[in-house]
Design brief:
The protein has about 170 residues and is α/β, with parallel strands linked by helices. The chain is built from seven helices and five strands. β4, α6 and β5 form a beta-alpha-beta unit.
Length: about 170
């Protein structure tokens, strides 16, 4: 039985888990307390995409039912930190406007020495520390205008980030 191309990425890289981060509370509809389908779509699409590639995806948005089952800060904070610690790869949207929670998660991923892929919307300005994170961590940036057409670029960025992190670890041993 041949492995389908969609299943090859996680296996090819020898990794299993991916943490997908991005703005959450600022995207909730004040009337319903949930993420509207338009703001939910990029996360749902990426979760489906990465799971199709064989990754186990950790994502607070889905875990908390897109806002319908929000966890208390003292519950979600250690859980997110531990999921990032255990993840093989970190992928995130820094947020427009900047998401404070996502920026903390990017810091954790950097401190835990994770390969990081940051998804930046074309034509937007991001914080200096987001744009310069590659100077202190293994970061690949994907600048996109349409997320669906950027999926091959995102896959390639994951491949590069994991390979670069592995090479750096090998050099330090």
């Amino acid at each position: 039985m041949t492995m389908t191309p969609a299943r090859e990425l996680a296996g090819e890289l020898g990794v299993n888990t991916l943490f997908l981060a991005g703005p959450f509370l600022q995207l909730l509809d004040p009337a319903t307390g949930e993420m509207p389908s338009g703001t939910r779509a990029p996360f749902a699409s990426l979760i489906e995409h990465f799971e199709g590639h064989g990754f186990s995806v950790h994502n607070a948005h889905r875990r908390e039912a897109w806002g319908a089952e929000l966890m208390a800060p003292a519950e979600c904070t250690p859980l997110d930190q531990e999921e990032i610690r255990k993840a093989d790869v970190f992928v995130g949207f820094p947020g427009l406007p900047a998401s404070p929670g996502t920026h903390i998660e990017m810091g954790w991923a950097s401190a835990f020495d994770k390969p990081i892929v940051l998804l930046l919307e074309e034509g937007q300005e991001y914080a200096f520390l987001v744009r310069g994170l590659h100077a202190v961590a293994t970061v690949e940036y994907v600048v996109f205008s349409d997320l669906e057409t950027a999926l091959p670029d995102i896959d390639e960025a994951v491949r590069r980030a994991v390979s670069r992190r592995r090479e750096a670890a090998d050099r330090s041993h």
